[in-house]
Amino acid sequence: MGTTQLDTVQEPKYWHLKTVLSDALDSEFAVGEILPNERDLAARFGVARATLRQALEQLELEGRLQRRRGVGTTVAPPRMGVPVADRSGHSWPGAPGDAWQPVDAVAVDGGAVPAAVAEALGTGAGDSLHVVRRTRVDHGQPVAAELLYVPAGSVPGLVADATIGPVARARAVLHELQRLALDGEERAVELGSARAEDAKQLDRLPGAPVLVVTTRYVTGGRTTAVAVSTYRADTCRLTFGDHDTLDVLPG
């Protein structure tokens, strides 16, 4: 394995180094493998360590690398696909095959939910809603967090039981949703910044780039539930149909 000198490159050295490193990740390293230390990498490519750090930071932003405390810098797994196209079949959150894991559920007043969610659901300050918190893990790391808003009127069969735990309460709400006939789903996608709570769940810093997918679940011509799913932009990609994909890169 020889060295690669970048002295004659006209573009910023760190940017060209990022491309060279990316090629090396594809050809020389496996997913989860730990990269050599910064001193060895800087010597291999003939650059200052400050230049190397810039390249590594960019690759981390693009989801090619992960920095793990106590481990080092490792090769990241492939991005997880986030489907946003219309599907021929629809299913409620929590249906068989759902990759999300319930965390907890709480009952809130309608005035405590985001205005856009309240408008979609047609709820007001005097209405009661269940808020189910869920998480999604891929290759052992958290990649998405979700808040599912369900008006109490959408699940009238749900029996309040103060003795059950938070996870069981979340599963009870999801179970009641399965009793309803789902007519369809409608999704909206936008790029955003991680709020403090989302950042904590996703193991990212507040303000980190995220992909926000808002899904409306429709029954009988009205919105029965709304899910706001926040994905790490460095680990996910949008997928359209069965074959077309679009990587979501921060910046």
UniProtKB/TrEMBL annotation:
Residues 11-78 form the HTH gntR-type domain. SUPFAM superfamilies: Chorismate lyase-like, Winged helix' DNA-binding domain. Gene3D superfamilies: Chorismate lyase-like, Winged helix-like DNA-binding domain superfamily/Winged helix DNA-binding domain. Keywords: DNA-binding, Transcription, Transcription regulation. This is GntR family transcriptional regulator.
